[in-house]
Design brief:
The protein is α+β, with helices and mostly antiparallel strands and 226 residues long. It folds into 2 domains: 87 residues; 116 residues, CRO Repressor (2-Layer Sandwich), CATH 3.30.240. The chain contains 7 helices and 7 strands. The strands form 2 sheets. Strands 2-1-3-4 form a 4-stranded antiparallel beta sheet, with helices on one face. A 3-stranded antiparallel beta sheet has the order 6-5-7, with no helix packed on it. The radius of gyration is 26 Å and the shape is elongated.
Length: 226
Amino acid sequence: MFLGDFPPLFLLEIVFRTVFLYVWLLLLLRVVGRRGLAQLSIVEFGIVIALGSAAGDGLFYPEVPLVHAMLVILLVILMQKGLTVLINRSETVETFVEGRPVCVVEDGRVRLEGLPSIGLSTEELFERLRERDVAQLGQVRYAFQEQSGNLSVFLFPDADVRPGLPLVPPDDLRTPTKVPFSADPTAMIACTNCGNVVPQGDRPFPCPRCGRVRWVRATLQTDVAR
């Protein structure tokens, strides 16, 4: 059950295969460069999967010669280097492989049309904005989902911050309502779905941007609770 049908001496062969292929992989990754190790784009992620499969088979399958495993690993690295050259030389290839940045927030409001293309929900977006010390959407001039998966946020100057949808718990967790918040119909309210800010009015109404009828009081708060 522990050794299978292989003789105990095969354990030493596994040790040798593991050390040998590990050193070979390190040498080739040195060619890839530090960028490939710092963050995983689509290209680097594909390399990790391919290298893991190629190296794994050669570690403990005796019917897989080491030269075959080394050749597969070498070809994967060379293809990655060639693709990197094409990406650097052709914007078309770069866009096809890595995509383009997607604007997800503009002028304090969520761009709902951009979220499905990157598989991001509004709650996930709000969480990532909180990680960037954003207390309410009115602080955000633009937010972009980059090709690397990171979120780039450009804030309004303090003097230009406008009322917006609160993102800091418990404000963002309060039960949305369909009734006015105060007796003042000019009070500003924010749509909990897209962050659109409008005067409260004297009766409930759907958001003119997304059609939802779920509102909270807009806030000018700019400090994230810690």
